[in-house]
Amino acid sequence: MIAETNQNDHVQASPDNAAALQNETETCEAGCSERHSHHSQQTKNNLITRLNRIEGQIRGIKGLIERDTYCDDVLNQIAAIQAALNGVGKLLLENHMRSCVVERIESGDHAVIDELLVTVKKLMK
């Protein structure tokens, strides 16, 4: 059976972990013409671990379908994967807002707000 994901397995802003988030987030290269990742190694490792788990769950669903597993069981696993992907998206969004968005606003680039709104709308579909 596929391991269930913890839907609350994402970083939440709180006074206790605010300093840890601040230390973990690297600065954005706001002035460069190319866009690229700016995440700390700890964040990258966290994202890769989550994505590896999701990848395994997807392979597990394929196996469930091959073994003619009851549809409701397969659908529950799909829901777990969707929740896990949402967790990855939330983590990425939070780190993006705490670094790139803040830095670009501080440098006077308010176009980042429109960019962020488009991204959030896509995540909320």
Question: What topology does this entry show?
Answer:
Blueprint: H1 15-24, H2 41-66, H3 71-106, H4 111-123
Helix pairs in contact: 2-3, 3-4
Write the H/E string, N to C.
Answer: HHHH
Report the biggest beta sheet as strand number plus sense, adding barrel if it closes.
Answer: none
Question: Quick check: average pLDDT?
Answer: 80
Poorly predicted regions are: 1-26
Q: What is the CATH architecture assignment of the domain at 40-123?
A: Up-down Bundle
**Shape descriptor:** elongated
CATH class of the domain at 40-123: Mainly Alpha
Total strands: 0
Proportion of residues in β-strands = under 5%
Distance between the termini: 29 Å
The residue fraction in helices comes out at 55-70%
State the helix count: 4
Report the C-alpha radius of gyration, rounded: 18 Å
Key words describing this protein structure:
single chain, 125 residues, mainly alpha, Methane Monooxygenase Hydroxylase, Chain G, domain 1, 68% helix, disordered N terminus, metal ion binding, DNA binding, Metal_Tscrpt_repr_sf
